[in-house]
Write a structure and sequence with these properties.
The chain is mostly helical and about 70 residues long. Helices cover about 90% and strands about 0% of the residues. The relative contact order is 0.08. Keywords: Membrane, Transmembrane, Transmembrane helix.
Length: about 70
């Protein structure tokens, strides 16, 4: 396994784990603040936009810059 392959695999695995962990943090924040279902949904929506923006940026770089 080359260094490039290891880097690609480890980035995908670690970022997926980080995104799942951030989802747990958002859920826990909603639960501890007693935000209710609507408040928790808004937390996921607003804070999830940051994760979505990060993923979207990487997809754009892959398709536009690297081609």
């Amino acid at each position: 396994m080359s260094e490039d392959q290891f880097t690609d695999i480890s980035m995908a695995v670690c970022l997926s784990g980080l995104i799942i962990f951030m989802g747990f943090i958002i859920w826990d924040l909603g639960k501890k603040s007693q935000a209710g279902k609507m408040g928790t949904a808004i937390l996921f929506l607003v804070l999830g936009f940051g994760v979505f923006g990060f993923i979207f940026k990487n997809v754009l770089v892959e398709f536009l810059v690297l081609k």
